[in-house]
Amino acid sequence: MTVYSSTLSLLLAVSALTSGFSNYRDCLPNGRAVPHPCKPNYLWHGVGHENALGGGVKNAFGLDFLRLGATWSVELCQLDSDGDGMTNGEELGDPQCTWTPGTLPPRISGITHPGE
C-alpha cells in the first residue's frame, strides 16, 4: 500500500506541474498550436522553453514573457524575441497586437515559433 500511495502522489504532483505549465499557452494567441521548427506536423508544447515539451531552460521568448508579467501584452507582441525579423505577434497570429485570452486569434494559420 505504501508503494501505491507514493506512486500515486508522484503521478499527481507531476500531473499538476505539467498542467500548470500548459496553462501559460492559454495566455498566448495560438499558444496551443505553435509548430516545432524542425519537425513538420509536430507541436512545440513548451513555447517558452528550449525543450519542446517544456520545463528546464527558457528560450528568449520565455524570458521576455516572464519579464513582462507572464501575460500577452502589446509590448511582448511587438518584440522580436528570437531575432528572426518577425515580431512575436506576427509569429503567433496577432500582427496588430489586439488578441485577448479566450478569443480567436486574428490569424490561425502560418504560425511560427517566437523563441526559436
TrEMBL record:
Query: Where is the secretion signal located?
Result: 1-20
Can the keyword Signal be found in this entry's annotation? yes
- Domain Temptin Cys/Cys disulfide, which positions? 19-115
Supply the InterPro entries for this chain.
Answer: S-S_Temptin, Temptin-like
Keywords of the record: Signal
**What is the top-level taxon of the source organism?**
Eukaryota
Which parts of this chain are annotated as the region Disordered? 85-116
A Pfam family it matches: Temptin_C
Carries keyword NAD?
no
- Name recorded for this polypeptide: Temptin Cys/Cys disulfide domain-containing protein
